[in-house]
Amino acid sequence: MTAATTVKAPIPAGTWKIDTTHSTVGFSVKHLMVSKVRGTFENFSGTITVDENGAPSVQAEIDVTSISTNNAQRDGHIKSADFFDAEKYPTATFVSTGVRQNGDDYTLEGDFTLKGVTKPVSLDLEFNGTNPGMGHGTVAGFDAKTVINRKDFGIDIEMPLEGGGVVVGDKITITLEIEALQA
């Protein structure tokens, strides 16, 4: 992380662990050109580290085998080699490379690895504040969003529709609702 792309974190120095009980990693993708399929990943972890100078860094991991779209058949297909090839690539990772101010919010830059392919991504990040918590320590809240192209990560299955278009869109919107607990 370079000083030119890093702003001081709005949370105190230390290590913050993602509280998976109070956080969500979700996504949506265009289906049949007219609607969206939404889903979540049930298993994920992550750490926000803020050094004494206030520079933040983020590391996160998603268990892609924990995908849930509320349809077991579809989930099985997404885990297959057609999409995630989850047997060979069971995790996706994110490692931050910088944070910059973006108006009242932030842009979190980092390297995202999915299906063995690493690409830079930018997440629009909103800081929701801190709270003393409920007896387990201080918590901080964040919302983040990015859009990736699945083909950039080797998920290039084509499922054309008879009348034109495709079954699954190329653009995937990833949304994060994160609560982190100061360790």
Automatic annotation (TrEMBL):
Domain Lipid/polyisoprenoid-binding YceI-like as annotated: residue spans: 15-181
InterPro entries with a match to the protein in the record: Lipid/polyisoprenoid-bd_YceI, TTHA0802/YceI-like_sf
Organism domain of life: Bacteria
Recorded family membership: Belongs to the UPF0312 family.
Protein name: Lipid/polyisoprenoid-binding YceI-like domain-containing protein
